[in-house]
# Entry
Amino acid sequence: MDDLETRELRYFVAVAEELHFGRAADRLGIAQPPLSRAIRRLEHRLGVQLLDRDRRGVALTDAGRVLLREAGTALDAVAAAAHRTRRAGDPRRPLVLATKAGASHELLQRLLDAAPSEPGAAPVEVLLCEVGEQAGLLRSGHADVALMHRPFDDLAGFDTEDLRVEGQVAILPAGHPLASCDQLTLADVSDVPELPIARWPRLDGSYPDGPGPKVRTQSQLAQLVALGKTLLVIPASSRAWQWPDHVAVPVVDAPEVTTVIAWQPSSRSRAVAALVHSAAGLSDTALAASAS
# Structure
């Protein structure tokens, strides 16, 4: 039988990440012998060797590397299912909307103002996060809906409704010569040696190569811009968080950015549907239609 239990997947992940049975057992809070037996049983049931064991230690086989990747996804899905189930069982819970701090501020404010009047609406709790975190919050069940941005955010697997299309601006130190320009191009902002573009971490935590400073939060980025250490190009509506030491200049050839509201396609929540409907009524398309 190929059915896998979450317990044995957690055991395997601990060993695969520690590459040491003793450390994995300590991490799991169990003795080493039952952990070793559990991994042996798992290998026997799957009919493959997951780990190479010798005097020098433990190493993953090709099959083990596949299971480590798949096990992480499976455990995350199980945890998310449990979290969403608990939340669905609480009739008093608010709807959690995740959004990048400082992004789409005016649209978010209008949505929060309009949402209570929608039939089936629930109270909305805003969960502010850093760049790229909305997808993980949606998948884990810690958020019900999210405001996200195409083409920057990971929208794979979500249902979405387009809300706004906008251009981008460069956020520059107020004293820099480019800050006095009426408009800029991508070539202008990509070739400023004294202001290398900041680098955000990839999904795996690593950083792309480049001279720009490594950042993890928008507050770090804002201060680095104010200090004259970097610049950034962002959607025009995100400039709401800019400091007095910053200047925003339109970047005329930067790709347009689409703000979307995203949710899990499996959602059957009436409150989620109500919030999405309210957001759709605030979209650029809806506003244009009402004005014509």
